[in-house]
């Protein structure tokens, strides 16, 4: 995985960025804002679909929720011009800030230049999703909204495990992260994330706290990885939830009847048998084999919208016991 460059702060930024209201939510350009509510006074942020956090109380609240220690190494994603960064540097030992926009990185560099904090800060210019991450204890992010899901799963797959992440997301995405079985927002995302972490909603952030104001509200969540993580391959669990939550209010049995599902599972099963030199008996009807698993586990008529993590793990284990895999 390539390391994002930390050099050439003034190079032309040629990465394509979506101009959607739900795209990037960068950090403050400055706490001294222009009176024009529609524009950022330092940068043409509309060009990058960015919404600059302008409320210093919100910035301080996000940092306070991290309960930083003097020995902490912090990863910050999307620092912008550094209103969160400056507050993090006051409490942490070291900060690695990953920023896509060289203009923002240059402004952040100016803010710490010649100050003691400069030695504690490393700025990485590049795409967070492609960057090689250093060791860190805590992650704090005013998240670029278009990388919300990749960011969460990249963090959860990072080793060694971090202690806590304090992340700002679009409100609907945050509600899906923290949803519980039976909630309107309980989804494949909810289950996949909560398999590996404890997630809590800790702060609402109104759109008036940004400039220009986005069309959506934001929320801050706390993510604490489970340590040790469960011994479950993510690809397998995700394969199961992909099937179940495609129609979360239908029965489990109905979801397994969806087009292509049986063919995919049967192909995986035959591959598994071939790898173990097991002989396939012609009289085995694969569909009946799947139906028997669903009935024996008691989940055939269950609705994914109300199944919890334990239910999903029991179902996955039942399939694995018979050699049926999802990835």
Would you kindly provide a written description of the structure presented here, covering whatever features stand out?
The chain contains 11 helices and 9 strands. The chain is α/β, with parallel strands linked by helices and 327 residues long. It has a 7-stranded mixed β-sheet with strand order 4-3-2-5-6-9-7, sandwiched between helices. Helix 1 runs parallel beside helix 2 and helix 10 crosses helix 11. It starts with 51 loop residues before the first strand and ends in a 6-residue tail after the last helix.
The profile of the biggest β sheet is: 7 strands, mixed
Strand content: 5-15%
Q: Mean pLDDT, as a whole number?
A: 87
Strand segment count: 9
Structural shape: elongated
Order of helices and strands: EHEHEHEEHEHHEEEHHHHH
Backbone structural class = alpha/beta
Give structural attributes:
15% strand, two-stranded antiparallel ribbon, 11 helices, 327 residues, disordered N terminus, seven-stranded mixed beta sheet
Write the topology of this structure.
Blueprint: E1 52-53, H1 56-65, E2 73-77, H2 83-91, E3 94-99, H3 102-112, E4 121-125, E5 138-142, H4 148-157, E6 164-170, H5 171-178, H6 188-194, E7 197-205, E8 210-211, E9 218-225, H7 234-244, H8 252-256, H9 261-275, H10 286-297, H11 309-321
Parallel strand pairs: 2-3, 2-5, 3-4, 5-6
Antiparallel strand pairs: 1-8, 6-9, 7-9
Helix pairs in contact: 1-2, 10-11
């Amino acid at each position: 995985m390539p390391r994002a460059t930390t050099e050439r702060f003034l190079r032309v930024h040629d990465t394509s960025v979506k101009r959607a209201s739900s795209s990037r939510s960068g950090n403050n350009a400055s706490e001294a804002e222009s009176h024009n509510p529609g524009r950022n006074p330092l940068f043409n942020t509309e060009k990058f679909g960015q919404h600059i956090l302008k409320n210093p109380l919100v910035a301080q609240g996000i940092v306070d929720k991290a309960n930083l220690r003097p020995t902490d190494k912090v990863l910050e994603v999307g620092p912008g011009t550094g209103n969160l960064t400056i507050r993090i540097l006051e409490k942490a030992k070291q900060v690695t800030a990953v920023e896509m926009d060289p203009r923002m990185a240059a402004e952040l560099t100016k803010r710490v230049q010649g100050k003691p904090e400069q030695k504690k800060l490393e700025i990485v210019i590049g795409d967070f999703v492609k960057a090689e991450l250093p060791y860190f204890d805590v992650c704090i992010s005013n998240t670029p909204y278009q990388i919300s899901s990749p960011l969460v799963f990249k963090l959860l797959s990072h080793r060694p495990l971090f202690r806590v992440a304090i992340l700002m997301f679009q409100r609907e995405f945050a509600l899906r992260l923290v949803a519980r079985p039976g909630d309107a927002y309980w989804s494949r995302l909810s289950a996949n994330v909560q398999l590996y972490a404890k997630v809590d909603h800790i702060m609402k952030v109104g759109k008036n706290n940004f400039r220009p104001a986005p069309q959506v509200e934001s929320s801050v969540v706390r993510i604490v990885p489970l340590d040790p993580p469960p011994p479950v391959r993510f690809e397998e669990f995700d394969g199961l939830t992909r099937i179940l939550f495609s129609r979360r209010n239908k029965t489990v049995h109905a979801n397994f009847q969806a087009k292509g599902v049986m063919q995919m599972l049967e192909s995986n099963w035959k591959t598994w048998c071939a790898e173990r030199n097991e002989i396939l008996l012609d009289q085995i009807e694969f569909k009946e084999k799947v139906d028997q698993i669903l009935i024996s586990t008691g989940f055939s008529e269950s609705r994914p919208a109300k199944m919890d993590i334990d239910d999903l793990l029991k179902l996955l284990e039942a399939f694995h016991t018979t050699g049926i895999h999802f990835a």
